[in-house]
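User: I want to check something. If I give you two sequences, will you return the structure for each one separately, not as a complex?

Assistant: Yes, each is folded on its own. Here is the first sequence with its structure:
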Amino acid sequence: MNIGDAAKASGVSAKMIRYYEEIGLVPKAARRGSGYRDYGEADVHRLRFIRRARDLGFAVEEIGELLALWSDRTRASSAVKAMALSHVEDLRRKRDEIDGMIATLEGLAACCHGDDRPDCPILEELATETAPVGPPPGPPRFGRPGGRAPQRS
């Protein structure tokens, strides 16, 4: 099958198939007399494996390791399990970082009046050199002594 057919069958775009060939995750496809790439079922199966690993968030380097383990019939499943559990820890760390970013942005948005005035605690926080990640400490100060919000007229 040509690259378009392989892309449809695997769920991997033709552009990504070319990239995976270039970096060695997928062997270079055989070429027809016309010069078009020619893919078989084994290639599509490998591409599906790669797509599923990418869907689970594995990095390209890790996918290369997983492919090597998949191809090695003498592998120990403990090596695969260790990779999976290590990846779970990476995902948990990323989730914690995202949760911190969400908390920070929610806290900042709660401090912002969102009206026609130019003062904005969100922009003020982004402008600080070392903006912390996580909920803002204490009540918002709004740049005034005593931390009181400006009174509306």
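And separately, the second sequence with its own structure:
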Amino acid sequence: MDHAQFRLVIPSQTRYLNLVTGLAKRAALVAGMDDATAAKVSIAVDEAVTNVILHAYHGEGEHSVELEVRFTEVALEIHILHTGQGIRQDQVVLPDPKEYIKHPRKGGLGLLLMSRFMDEVSFKEDGGSGRNECCLIKKIG
């Protein structure tokens, strides 16, 4: 497969999440993943975009969230771009699942799911453009 890619831009509102998750699931299937794997990709993307809407944009609905889906020979890459408050890689703390069950709290579980369901999760801040990115990668096969 050549390096196909496409983009979807949605308003920063949770009511559009099903468009994003549907796209992520279909993209995973097109990349050759099975249904169970495609569902996990969809959940990870749902978590990432929800984080952008609720945390980066603080629930403000007049912004936009951009998804860039890239197919390579070895992986499906989903880049989630926004101009909200960024998160640096060194700020990412994954909760220990056993501790989380003992002391449940709001937040943190989405990052854990993302890291479990995807092969790579990274965050980048671009100070120059003011754009921030969450990159989710799922290897094929």
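Because they were folded independently, the notes below concern the second chain alone. Residues 35-56 form the longest helix (22 residues). Strands lie at 5-11, 64-71, 75-82, 120-126, 131-139.
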